[in-house]
Prior knowledge:
Layout: E1 14-15, E2 24-31, E3 37-43, E4 48-54, E5 59-63, E6 67-70, E7 72-76, E8 80-88, E9 96-104
Amino acid sequence: xxxxxxxxxAQQCQQIQFLSGASSGEVSGTVIEGSxxxxxxxxxxxxxxxxxxxxSENACFSIDGVIDxxxxxxxxxxxxxxxxxxxxxxxxxxxxxxxxxLTIR
Length: 105
């Protein structure tokens, strides 16, 4: 699933950053119907990336070319930059606030 549809393709993605020496980073935000948020992260080949979405029961994330609409997911990475989209699972007019934690080992 390509989470960045029409209108959002020009959207700039925020990089998920880690503090020096840390193996995880966290971002938060708010999504509304038709307005996903976009994040990126880079990794080396053969690392394990784990993403955990919390704070909302109606939001999920997709990783381009990897997985669609999950709240938690772990996978072995290739040496590349990944794009993660957070969006509402079921369209609602109310905003969904979330926290997304990324851990890479």
